[in-house]
């Protein structure tokens, strides 16, 4: 049976029958114009992901430096190093928890901007650290900011993007996070660890400056009854020469049907809990692949192996390969589709960028703010458990044991992708939600 999301739209799936969508010719004429400002708004937002990726791997060059530090207040033992590496993920879990409230209270844009406060404070603490507590608190604060942006930015990007570019733009959070990590690895070859923290302040300040000129999500504004502001935001995003009436009515209709918050009784409805459960399992399984502890301890991992190049150079090479892979994913996922890349590619081309994109696409509007925060919470609690135990397991059993476990999880991910993950290429968020509402099992095959 042909998948509904890949085949022609049947009458049962006609989400908005009152008025036909723009013709392909009309979409072609306005496509280039209506995406320019979307690209700018997306770039402003994903600078938060750059800071997140930078902060996540900050410990990779810093832990080896502090383990050999002559300052007794900053010299790290193996146990202290495991806390320094893993406490970031605890902060990220707290950030995801706060996003469950802030995403719908402040809106996507203001929540992203708010993340700059703990991020800047965290980098300042690490730059001026005089003891372990300052390092740990700085890592926690930057982790909190990262968890908040990880929940808010994919939702913001998916809600402002047009269906034709949502796949490519949906990969930009992961792309910028990887670019942030590569920047840290590269700067780690040149700067001492304190100056690495100082350099982390720059993207945060640029993000605040640019986002102050960007609009909020039209969907969020409509959900708060700010219709005229939503119209202006959509008009700005699509360009002055674009007829936005059909798209605005489409979004408005969906928001009106979901104007109230989801109740616990409604959460038991399959069209509500099924996409939330899929998103939660994707985030859980993504972390179980081991990506976070590998990135956090990357230089230490290379230190324990017989590689030819210096560990700092190896870490930078890994960062460059990840960046290239995510860039390829961004350019191909709207052509090949999300699901096929999950099957045939590695982490950086598949389970890295695509799971974040799918999370923002399939979550129902009424639960999107809370559910995205819950996904981030689950993701980073899992990451904490893995990151905290990784060095201890390696010291006790060797490097091969955790990597065998990660390989087994990758096989499980293939099965999960085949039976549960939907293909969403080329569909609007409202259409995706209507597919789940039909309850047709073929959509999830």
What key attributes describe this structure?
445 residues, mainly alpha, Growth Hormone, Chain: A, 2 domains, 23 helices, 74% helix, 0% strand, globular, disordered N terminus
Give the overall form: globular
Provide mean pLDDT, rounded.
81
Would you state the CATH class of the largest domain? Mainly Alpha
The number of domains is 2
Count of individual helical segments: 23
Number of DSSP-assigned strands: 0
CATH superfamily of the largest domain: MFS general substrate transporter like domains
Main location: membrane
Pfam families: Sugar_tr (PF00083)
Family: Belongs to the major facilitator superfamily. Sugar transporter (TC 2.A.1.1) family. Glucose transporter subfamily.
Keywords: Cell membrane, Membrane, Sugar transport, Transmembrane, Transmembrane helix, Transport
Can you describe this structure in just a few lines?
The protein is an all-alpha fold and about 450 residues long.
Molecular structure report:
- This protein has 445 residues and is mainly α.
- It folds into 2 domains: 34-214 and 267-438, MFS general substrate transporter like domains (Growth Hormone, Chain: A, Up-down Bundle), CATH 1.20.1250.20; 222-256, no CATH class.
- 74% of the residues lie in helices and 0% in strands.
- The chain has helices at residues 24-56, 59-67, 78-105, 108-114, 116-127, 132-160, 163-170, 172-188, 193-199, 201-211, 218-223, 227-238, 245-257, 264-267, 270-288, 291-296, 298-303, 311-336, 338-344, 353-362, 368-397, 400-420, 429-438.
- The protein is globular, with a radius of gyration of 22 Å.
- The termini are close together.
- Residues 1-22, 24-30 and 441-445 have low confidence and may be disordered.
């Amino acid at each position: 049976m042909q998948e509904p999301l890949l085949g022609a739209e049947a009458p049962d799936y006609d989400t908005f029958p009152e008025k036909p969508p723009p013709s392909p010719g009309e979409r072609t004429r306005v496509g280039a114009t209506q995406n320019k400002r979307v690209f700018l708004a997306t770039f402003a937002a994903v600078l938060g992901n750059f800071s997140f990726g930078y902060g996540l791997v900050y410990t990779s060059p810093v832990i080896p430096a502090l383990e050999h530090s002559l300052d007794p207040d900053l010299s790290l033992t193996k146990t202290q190093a495991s806390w320094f590496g893993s406490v970031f993920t605890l902060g990220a879990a707290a950030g995801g928890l706060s996003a469950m409230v802030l995403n719908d209270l402040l809106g996507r844009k203001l929540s992203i901007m708010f993340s700059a406060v703990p991020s800047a404070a965290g980098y300042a603490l690490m730059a001026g650290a005089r003891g372990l507590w300052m390092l740990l608190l700085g890592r926690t604060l930057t982790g909190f900011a990262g968890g908040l942006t990880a929940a808010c930015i994919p939702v913001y990007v998916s809600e402002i993007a047009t269906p034709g570019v949502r796949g490519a733009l949906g990969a930009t959070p992961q792309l910028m996070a990887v670019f942030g990590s590569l920047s840290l690895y590269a700067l780690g070859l040149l700067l001492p660890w304190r100056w690495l923290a100082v350099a982390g302040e720059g993207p945060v300040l640029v993000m605040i400056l640019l986002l102050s000129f960007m609009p909020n999500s039209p969907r969020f504004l409509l959900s708060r009854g700010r219709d005229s502001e939503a119209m202006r935001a959509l008009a700005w995003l699509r360009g002055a020469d674009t007829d936005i009436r059909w798209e605005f009515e489409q979004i408005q209709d969906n928001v009106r049907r979901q104007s109230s918050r989801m109740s616990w009784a409604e959460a038991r409805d399959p069209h509500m809990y099924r996409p939330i459960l899929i998103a939660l399992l994707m985030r859980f399984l993504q972390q179980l692949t081991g990506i976070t502890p590998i990135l956090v301890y990357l230089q230490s991992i290379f230190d324990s192996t017989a590689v030819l190049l210096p560990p700092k150079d190896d870490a930078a090479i890994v960062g460059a390969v990840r960046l290239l892979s995510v860039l390829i994913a961004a350019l191909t996922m709207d052509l090949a589709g999300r699901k096929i890349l999950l099957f045939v590619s590695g982490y950086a081309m598949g389970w890295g960028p695509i799971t974040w994109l799918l999370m923002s696409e399939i979550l129902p509007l009424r639960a999107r703010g809370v559910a995205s925060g819950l996904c981030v919470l689950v993701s980073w609690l899992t990451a904490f458990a893995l990151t905290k135990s990784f060095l201890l397991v390696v010291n006790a059993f060797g490097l091969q044991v955790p990597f065998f476990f990660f390989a087994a999880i990758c096989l499980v991910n293939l099965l999960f992708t085949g039976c549960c993950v939907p293909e969403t290429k080329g569909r609007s968020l409202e259409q995706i939600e209507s597919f789940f509402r039909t309850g047709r099992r073929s959509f999830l095959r």
